[in-house]
Design a protein that fits this description.
2 copies of one chain form a homodimer. By secondary structure, chain A is an alpha/beta fold. Chain A has a domain of 115 residues: Dna Topoisomerase Vi A Subunit, Chain: A, domain 2, CATH 3.40.1360.10. Chain A has 8 helices and 6 strands, in the order αααββαβαβαβαβα. In chain A, the strands form 2 sheets. The first copy, chain A, has a 4-stranded parallel beta sheet. In chain A, α1 packs across α2. The radius of gyration of chain A is 22 Å and the shape is globular. Chains A and B meet through α1, α2, α3, β2 and α5 of A and α1, α2, α3, β2 and α5 of B.
Chain lengths: 205, 205
Amino acid sequence: MTVTDIERLIQLLARLPGLGPRSARRAVLQMIKRPETLMLPLAAALRQAAENVRACSVCGNLDTHDPCAVCRDRERDATTICVVEEVADLWAIERSGAYRGLYHVLGGTLSALDGRGPEQLSIGRLIDRVTRPSSSPAERPRVAEVILALSATVDGQTTAHYIVERLAETGIKVSRLAQGVPVGGELDYLDDGTLSTALRARRPV
Amino acid sequence: MTVTDIERLIQLLARLPGLGPRSARRAVLQMIKRPETLMLPLAAALRQAAENVRACSVCGNLDTHDPCAVCRDRERDATTICVVEEVADLWAIERSGAYRGLYHVLGGTLSALDGRGPEQLSIGRLIDRVTRPSSSPAERPRVAEVILALSATVDGQTTAHYIVERLAETGIKVSRLAQGVPVGGELDYLDDGTLSTALRARRPV
């Protein structure tokens, strides 16, 4: 059998995270049943996104404009910058609706194992953004707080420590996300690390 | 945020079976990092498949040619037709490498609940294929056996019974897949139905 068109499509789809060869095959079979409603629109959307979506030169978010919609939004609190590892984290915080400041996407974490140092991340750009003398204060107010929203992993916390040190001399307030029991989490199913962190960080009621 | 290009792409991807909104987002973020190696090739492959892939007019398989590569293959045993529900089942049997005959894709099963009768499936076309007097026996040998490779579900078995009845008067040999313990299956984890089927169908060693 030389069903090259179909096989090539399956191979490409199977390279997406979350799709293996089996689900890629299922997806292709479902799409072929209705090319007009799913397959061709998907092809067009992919081409359009590949051509139009760029990383924001200010914060690293992905958008069809540069600066991105978040950085352009005058309603947002420009005195607060939330530092995240990846664009996916930025989107997750946006979905929560709990934050109205700006962002800074690092592009990953420091990692000795993977050989990622500070120069591979946009940490220098973050320091620039925070310390740059504002030519027109009305246009771009001074940053007052940097919130580190990094993973509670070894690499994430190493990166957080490094940024805290780099920002120490600027005198800017640096905070990080609270750690503890997730909302809806059952104690019985929590790992020991989370449980002991939550115990140590207990708060009076 | 009006990231319409990205959001539209995520929505389309999330409609594929096996991908929810979360994994569609992850897939899009990964693709945007390397548009040249994954995103644009995928867009091209989708458009190509949508334009070129058709159902085989003989057996219902999907291919860029009609008749499909299986039906055109002179090396295959044209006296045996394996009846399957969907193209995915045909591909699964092809991957096993255990079959060298032809196929017939029904396009589903009979289903009283979903209102699918024999006219919605390609059963009539199967009967035609099997009973058609062969104009040139060398060109197209008579079908000697029909193998029913249908799901071991109520609908699958109803469909099998119906096809057996329709083929009864033709005198053609009809068989079905063996049922029993799957290879590598542990008895402890088998459902009662499979276990009792395997017991009833026990074979001397």
